[in-house]
Amino acid sequence: MSSSKPAVVLVHGFWGGAAHWAKVILELKALGYTDLRAVEVPLTSLAEDAERTRKMVAQIPGPVVLVGHSYGGAVISEAGHQPNVAALVYIAAFAPDAGESPGGITQEHLPVAAPNLVPDSDGYLWLNPGKFHESFCQDLSADEAFVMAVTQKAPLAATFGNPVTDPAWRHKPSWYQVSSQDRMIAPENQQRMSARMKARKVVTLDASHASLASMPGEVAALIDEAATASS
């Protein structure tokens, strides 16, 4: 199983779990990556989600490429300081600066699907299942969207307001993929965040928020490019 390629740790966002990375995992496997991990974060607070990610990275002896989708970008920004993290890759993701939260960034440019988020009586924030397809993954099939809607993992709404302390993208080489048809994170916010971080490369895909599922080949290619450049 020895490979010159670094390990890749994939961090999911709100309204999904590690399985959202399924297609990207298979694309990376086809590219020769043998050490692939997809962390399952609790979505209970940024601190807890970052700690869960740090613990997974700590189990890996060699270099790691840390990849975050959506809110997972805030997680890797908070958790990416470990010395073996060689690169950060943001997939249609939040990249908050110090003191910024995903919620605060969202307020700057409200995404199209913002009205489809529904809090429940226990403080969890759901994406209306009947609106999941049009909101999250309009470029996937109705069946794929239905499964995503049924298996969605709701965050504690308070997590949206948790600020990043010292973002790892200020210290590590970073790559960014913008989804130009994103209805969950406004493309204007993605463009601003990717420009601000001075990403080594920004790729814009004609994709929904779920680019990791609708265009996994292109997403895996960007991860591969980051891994190659940083190793």
Automatic annotation (TrEMBL):
Q: Where is the AB hydrolase-1 domain?
A: 8-221
- The UniProt record lists the keyword Hydrolase: yes
SUPFAM superfamilies referenced in this protein's UniProt entry, alphabetically? alpha/beta-Hydrolases (SSF53474)
Name the InterPro entries for this protein.
AB_hydrolase_1, AB_hydrolase_fold, Sec-Metab_Biosynth_Hydrolase
- Record-level Gene Ontology MF annotations: hydrolase activity
Q: Which UniProt keywords apply?
A: Hydrolase
One Pfam family linked to the record: Abhydrolase_6
* Name this protein carries in UniProt: Alpha/beta hydrolase
